[in-house]
Structure formats: structure tokens, C-alpha cells
Amino acid sequence: MKRELTCIGCPMGCRLTAEFDGKEVTAVSGNGCGVGARYAREELTNPKRMVTALVRVAGTERPLPVKTAAPIEKRLVFDCLAALEQAEAHLPVHIGDVILRDVLGTGVDVVASANMEDA
């Protein structure tokens, strides 16, 4: 079967056509670079996404923006958000500080994406 995709691997946004047999991608066309072919293969066999969210910070009403340090499997995104809803950071926090280690056993940490100091 053929699948049409728009590559999000770089700013070009190439329109890709991937031939997919249900288990593997057998051909990719329309990509302007190697990123497109890699993106199509991953997107159709094991899609991943970065997760960004806000986490509560003890002692303040202001939430802390966080993100996964690497993409996680797309099927785990909502479970990751549920885990982050239960998380709480403690001041001071600096960009890159680990807020939740090895989220859902993925090997990927959730890290702070902003600095927050004690008031």
C-alpha cells in the first residue's frame, strides 16, 4: 500500500510517498534528503514524538515547562502526560535538570526547559 506523508524532519516539509507492506517500508520517494526516508520508515513502523508539558512546582503557582530529552514512542504520549501530572519540581530548577528520570521505563528523561529560582 502507498502512504502519503509530510516530512517533519527538517524545514523543507517534503511530500513523501512511502510504499508499506504492513510491516516494513519498501520504498520512499519525494524526499529531498536522507532525513525524509528515515522519517517515513520510522513514522510507519514505530512513530515517536517529543513531549512537552507543564509540571507543578512546590511552593509556587507558576508551572515549570518540561520536555522529554528525546522522542518517545507515540503510543506512550498520553501515559507520559499522566505521569507528569503527578510530578512535582522543587526550586531552584535550571534548564536541563532532570525532573522525571526514565519516564515509563523508556530510558528517556523529562527535563526542565526553563530556569526557575527561589522567590
What is the topology?
Elements: E1 2-6, E2 15-20, E3 25-29, H1 34-45, E4 48-49, E5 52-57, E6 64-68, E7 72-73, H2 77-86, E8 88-89, E9 98-100, E10 110-112
Parallel strand pairs: 5-8
Antiparallel strand pairs: 1-2, 2-3, 4-7, 5-6, 6-10, 9-10
Strand-residue fraction? Answer: 25-35%
Q: Calculate the terminal CA-CA distance, rounded to whole Å.
A: 58 Å
Strands of the biggest beta sheet: in what spatial order?
A: 8-5-6-10-9
Mean pLDDT: 96
Compressed to H and E, one letter per element, the order equals EEEHEEEEHEEE
Summarize the main sheet: 5 strands, mixed
Choose one word for the global shape.
elongated
Query: What portion of residues is helical?
Result: 10-25%
**Which structural class best describes the helix and strand composition?**
alpha+beta
The protein's oligomeric status is single chain
SS elements, strand count: 10
Provide the low-confidence segments as ranges.
Answer: none
Radius of gyration: 18 Å
Annotation field: number of helices: 2
